[in-house]
Specification:
alpha/beta, TIM Barrel, eight-stranded parallel beta barrel, binds 3-methyl-2-oxobutanoic acid, 14% strand, 264 residues, binds sodium ion
């Protein structure tokens, strides 16, 4: 297997080289992204919105994630493959172990991603001990949209920021291999990134994170409706899908994306 490993990713963090990640849901885009040199492919449950047309990610099932993960796996050879665990597929540690095993065995993912803080410590430890690497996800966690009450920046108050700092360290201690920070103020994301040994992947979290991820359809300007303010459509200035992807990679590697206009 020639895919990028978590060890290699951690080395990139140590060396201070920025890491690129995009979401992807099918073999053709996976091949394009992989050949362009994207380090991480994320089969995100955002597919519930951008592929399936739902209003939230909640209707997505483990079967859906396996189906799309298989496609992305077949289309790519080099990138690290992360798959989202869908809503309620990790509600208990045992359920999480069962769902995650399917995503690795049937979907061929290397890493599973799950959304949430302190309550997931036991689950992250269990999966990690059983040989399943976990990417944690803090800040705006779209599977909790009904509890959060809207797609808003998280960690603005001091008590919210303290919870985020604490959860990030607790998840790393439990064995998390990676952390996604979504929609948190840039200075808080910078502080958390520095406090952790594991690579931090930001989306709407400023330029200090070790890696950047965007929803593929946002960065190609084909998501229906309004594009999130932290995202950028790379297509108009480049003119083709492949050059847009190359422009994203270059902008992340040189620290030009995200700029202040994409940061909270
Ligand atoms: O589902 C998704 O696309 C994600 C990323 C935006 C981090 O979780
Ligand atoms: Na997701």
């Amino acid at each position: 297997m020639n895919r990028l490993t978590l060890t290699q990713l951690r080395k990139l963090k140590t060396q201070g080289e920025k890491i690129t990640c995009l979401t992807v849901y099918d073999a053709s885009f996976a091949a394009l992204l992989d050949q362009a040199g994207i380090e991480i492919l994320l089969v995100g449950d955002s597919l519930g919105m951008v592929i399936q047309g739902h209003e939230t990610t909640l209707p997505v099932t483990v079967e859906h994630m396996i189906y799309h993960c298989q496609q992305v796996y077949r289309g790519s050879r080099n990138a690290l493959l992360i798959v989202d665990m869908p809503f309620m597929s990790y509600a208990t540690p045992d359920l999480a172990l069962h769902s995650a095993a399917r995503l690795l065995q049937e979907g061929q993912a290397q890493v599973v991603k799950l959304e949430g803080g302190n309550w997931l410590v036991e689950t992250v430890r269990l999966l990690t001990e059983r040989g399943i690497p976990v990417c944690a996800h803090l800040g705006l966690t779209p599977q909790s949209i009904h509890r959060l009450g809207g797609y808003r920046v998280q960690g603005r108050t001091e008590s919210e920021a303290n919870n985020l700092r604490h959860d990030a360290l607790a998840l790393q201690s439990a064995g998390a291999a990676l952390l996604v920070l979504e929609c948190v103020p840039g200075n808080l994301a910078a502080e958390i990134t520095q406090s952790l040994d594991i690579p931090v992947i930001g989306i709407g979290a400023g330029s200090a994170c070790d890696a950047q991820v965007l929803v593929l359809y946002d960065m190609l300007g084909i998501t229906p409706g309004k594009r999130p303010s932290f995202s950028k459509d790379f297509l108009p200035e480049t003119g083709s899908i492949i050059t847009a992807i190359e422009a994203f990679i270059k902008a992340v590697k040189t620290g030009l994306f995200p700029g202040p206009e994409h940061t909270f």
